[in-house]
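Researcher: Please predict.
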Amino acid sequence: MNDFTIPKKQYVLLEEGQYLAEVTDLEQSEGEYGTQVKITFNLLDAEEENASLIGWCSANYSPKSKLFAWTKAALGQKFNPDEDFQASKLKGKQVHLQVSRRMGANGTEYNKVEAVFSHRQALPRKAEEINAEIGFDEVEEPPAPPVWDE
């Protein structure tokens, strides 16, 4: 028998939010929901080193599909809606991911890629994030209007 080592895989739960990422791998996979496209994203601005996420899309490619929207976001101006999907065109492209936390059937939390945006596109942000960035505190309630005796 030849001895070998398999490194233990570490799973780190990321905070919900937006992350800059690069598409590093794409593959077709058969699963519970039919043919899927498994897209691996390397996170470029996460606190954890070498953090990556996997996004799943149905292998349907039409203007109403997630795969179509994610391809459009990754390719930007080079996107041609009349062409067929070609995985090699996405590899190496940078995108922004909207990442959430979900609860699995087994009770463990996991991250999910909810949306993919162009890395050049302004990302949707919460009002609280914008206010914190510019140092804006909560607005005090205006004083009640005076009551006039008649």
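Model: The first helix runs from residue 66 to 75.
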